[in-house]
Amino acid sequence: MKKNSDYNLVIKPSAKRYLIKLSKKNKKDSKLLLKSIKKIPNNPYNSISLKSRVNKERRVRTGDYRIIFKIIEDENPSVIEIIRIGKRASIYKK
């Protein structure tokens, strides 16, 4: 298990756009999502692995929202890449 400082947190542009759009509509939910994103590097394996994904994506549930991310340990320091953020009804659709 690595320490928090051993992970770089990267957020894909589409996930950033979703957060910006949400912050204009619902500040409370956007703050809650940001808190959850900041906690992911503390213990990224304390999340649920998505079974149907080949590239080992994981998810964290925050209220009605899901944060989909991937841990890339090939790089030094390791990277946690936030791939998608959204509501449960639409997050798993491609």
Features:
94 residues, alpha+beta, 3 helices, 5 strands, globular
Description:
The protein is α+β, with helices and mostly antiparallel strands and 94 residues long. The chain is 32% helix and 33% strand. The protein is built from 3 helices and 5 strands; from the N terminus they run E-H-H-E-E-E-E-H. It has helices spanning 13-25, 27-39, 88-91; strands spanning 7-11, 48-49, 57-62, 65-72, 78-87. Strands 1-5-4-3-2 form a 5-stranded mixed beta sheet. Strand 4 and strand 5 (78-87) form a beta hairpin. Helix 1 runs antiparallel to helix 2. The N and C termini lie far apart (31 Å). The model has no long low-confidence stretch (mean pLDDT 86).
Furnish the topology, listing elements before pairings.
Blueprint: E1 7-11, H1 13-25, H2 27-39, E2 48-49, E3 57-62, E4 65-72, E5 78-87, H3 88-91
Parallel strand pairs: 1-5
Antiparallel strand pairs: 2-3, 3-4, 4-5
Helix pairs in contact: 1-2
Q: What spatial order of strands do you see in the largest sheet? A: 1-5-4-3-2
How many strands, which pairing sense, and closed or not: the largest β-sheet?
Answer: 5 strands, mixed
Helix content: 25-40%
The share of residues in extended strands comes to 25-35%
Low-confidence stretches: none
Derived from helix and strand composition plus strand pairing, the structural class reads: alpha+beta
C-alpha end-to-end distance:
31 Å
Number of strands: 5
Rg calc: 13 Å
Chain-averaged pLDDT:
86
Shape: globular
The total count of helices amounts to 3
What series of H and E elements makes up the topology?
EHHEEEEH
